[in-house]
Write a structure and sequence with these properties.
Number of domains: 2
Strand order of the largest sheet: 11-3-1-12
Order of helices and strands: EHEEEEEEEHEEHEHHEHE
Largest sheet: 4 strands, mixed
Number of strands: 13
Helix content: 10-25%
Mean pLDDT: 70
Radius of gyration: 18 Å
Shape: globular
Low-confidence stretches: 1-92
Oligomer: single chain
Length: about 280
């Protein structure tokens, strides 16, 4: 699994996604990210999209296997180190202007305080560090099921707010971003990888990508990753995002799009005798 991942959830018709049971998840050692599957494509393509870009996340060591930490993990942190593109809730006062947060943290728009990103915990010295995912072979059934359930809990089931026009990408709530990072952290935990954070400054590019790809899905465009300048809702930013993103149609919730990008060969190879083989 790559430590850098980009994904986009287009604002198309909402479809359900089925998940394998907890027992099957225990053997995951070869979970992969790939393009959203064709069977998950939506049947209608309304206005713009949502998107997230992640960065960071080193391979985890064979340490303890704590549950995914709660978002924020116990309060504010000092305002220091590299800036993070935390974003602001639609209509809310953004108190993060001029605030920079340390690695693994973001600024909470409503308070102007730095909090740990999903999957990261306070180090006790004013910074955040990734929760050690541990060796997948040491994960117990209870730990896997707890992580699965926590990773699939949504704090904002409607994170995308449409823009004023059909080509306006709209806005994506911070809770929607956090839900997506939590979902991704859950899958990475299952294979012993550390969590990732949202890449600073990339959100606008991939929101623009969502606008153009939502209106130009497979079957209507030669290559959704390279939209033509004549494509509906085309923009240079959207084209740049489409050329470097995994694209998933059929979801309004970016966290649910992550499920489209994860596969385990053991569930599709009848000859396999062990999950993940």
């Amino acid at each position: 699994m790559k430590t850098h991942a980009r994904w986009l959830a287009s604002a198309t018709a909402l479809l359900s996604v089925c998940a394998v049971g907890c027992g099957q998840m225990l053997g995951y050692d070869d979970v992969r990210f790939g393009e959203g599957q064709s069977e998950n494509l939506g049947t209608s393509y309304p206005t713009p999209a949502t998107s997230v870009t992640t960065t960071g996340g080193s391979d985890g060591g064979a340490l303890g296997v704590p549950p995914l930490p709660a978002i924020g993990d116990g309060g504010a942190l000092p305002r220091e180190l590299p800036p993070n593109d935390g974003g602001s809730e639609s209509g809310a006062l953004d108190r993060c202007n001029g605030v920079t947060c340390g690695a693994g943290a973001r600024c909470e728009a409503a308070t102007g305080q730095c909090v740990c990103s999903p999957g990261f915990v306070s180090s006790g010295s004013g910074t955040c560090q990734s929760a050690p995912p541990g060796d997948p072979a040491s994960h117990t059934e209870a730990q896997v099921c707890a992580s699965w359930n926590q990773g699939h809990a949504l704090t904002d089931p409607s994170p995308w707010t449409p823009g004023a026009t059909e080509c306006d990408p709209g806005t994506l709530s911070q809770k929607g971003i956090d839900d997506t990072l939590t979902r991704l952290a859950m899958f990475r935990y299952l294979v012993g990888l550390a969590p990732v954070v949202e890449a600073a400054g990339a959100r606008a590019t991939y929101m623009a990508c969502g606008a153009v790809t939502a209106w130009n899905p497979p079957g209507t465009a030669a290559n959704p990753h390279a939209p033509e300048p004549t494509a509906k809702c085309y923009s240079s930013a959207g084209a740049a995002g489409a050329g470097s993103a995994n694209i998933g149609w059929g979801q309004r919730v970016p966290a649910d799009a992550i499920d489209q990008f994860v596969e385990d060969p053991a569930t599709t190879q009848p000859s396999a005798t062990a999950a993940g083989s």
